[in-house]
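Record format v2
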Amino acid sequence: MAIGIKVSPNKAFYLKDPQETTLGKKIIKESILLIDEIGFEDFNFKKLAVQMESTEASVYRYFENKHMLLIYLVSWYWEWVSYLMEVNTMNIKDSKEKLKLIIRTLVYASKDNAAIEFVNESVLHRLFIAEGTKAYHRKTVDQENKEGFFLNYKELVQKIADVILEIKPKFPYPHALATELFEMANNHIYFAQHLPRLTDVEVVGEDYSEVDEMIEYFAFKLLA
Amino acid sequence: MAIGIKVSPNKAFYLKDPQETTLGKKIIKESILLIDEIGFEDFNFKKLAVQMESTEASVYRYFENKHMLLIYLVSWYWEWVSYLMEVNTMNIKDSKEKLKLIIRTLVYASKDNAAIEFVNESVLHRLFIAEGTKAYHRKTVDQENKEGFFLNYKELVQKIADVILEIKPKFPYPHALATELFEMANNHIYFAQHLPRLTDVEVVGEDYSEVDEMIEYFAFKLLA
DNA sequence: TCATTAATGATAGTATTGCTATTATACAGG
DNA sequence: CCTGTATAATAGCAATACTATCATTAATGA
């Protein structure tokens, strides 16, 4: 996300646009750090206010509750990855090469970058891996879906699916494969770090190359 | 799970074995129904007590908190699927046929069956699809993993991985593929029902056949 | 049959969470 | 300098997440 570019999550996510004010940006910045640190279950607006040296009431002026804040952050992540994908595949002609670069983007989403200064994308990536699915695994999913809460995810998947179809126009499951590539990237980074017997790859520090290799293997085997 | 067979989740999950008493069984039975109905976020022991016509304090004698109850239920599900897999592939010689039956089991886990009378496996399946990942996407995952909370999942994955290796001994990612088959089954049933643009399959009522077909396609393409 | 114990129910109470309301202060634009 | 807007400070309330105590019942067994 080049400097000056603004990520634009759905207006329905917030009561007041956090990107418009200093306090709002601080909420985004600090909530990412705090959720990453203590986990979404233990996170609340009181703790966030303390960490920000602001007040609970002020945070509530921006977001209805912590679920809406998570939706906002997760949506930001989807948009951010979409953007990275675009940038990284720009001017690439070969579809297979494009898919490789897409996979690399999904795995290494956090790659440092001239990004929005108040968002630590690397931490956001980790947050998404750990908490992302909680955004849509709720009883409210259908209503929220109607209101467009997950559009960014769908657009991301559509973009990947388009490339899949460029490679193999008759592939019967382009969206499902796109979704799986994205989910696999996140899942197997998490499994490698926390439940290693559920995977075959290792992650050492920031080195996700084995995950990248594996997903490439899966993708191209399926599209062979 | 033939009548008389007892599922045996880790003792560390509970304060007092719920399978040993009438009230305990009622907690299992009613909590599955209530979580399925209102979602895990809104679920609490007070509401469960009301639904059971018991008291909050009584529920707390069995489970430390709702997270531990979820771990118990999820673990039950993993064990139940493991058991079904065994039964369904018993006496099957051909490894490919075995994998097909395993996939069918993962997708149709809820298939009615001479099961434990106080657990509605069909509802448990739905609950797992919606809430399952919340059991291990928590800050406590490493500690809980050490205490063996996820052994049932690992054993399930190992069983599938063994069959994968029977089919293709040199397949480089047997555990990851096993995990993905399981995760895909759950994800795409959920996506088909709630976020259809993330997948290519349709689920109509209880008919998961398109999911089954798709996962078979993925698995055998990868093992070709 | 009585005494003992274990399980549950009934009730109460405390600390924290989730959220709303009110007023005061600061400070930015006209 | 005035006026509106954003934030801070504070309070408060209802719900949640437990814990403790005691009474009641059921089951066990001497």
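Residues 70-222 of chain A form a domain with the Tetracycline Repressor; domain 2 fold (CATH 1.10.357).
The mean pLDDT of chain A is 93.
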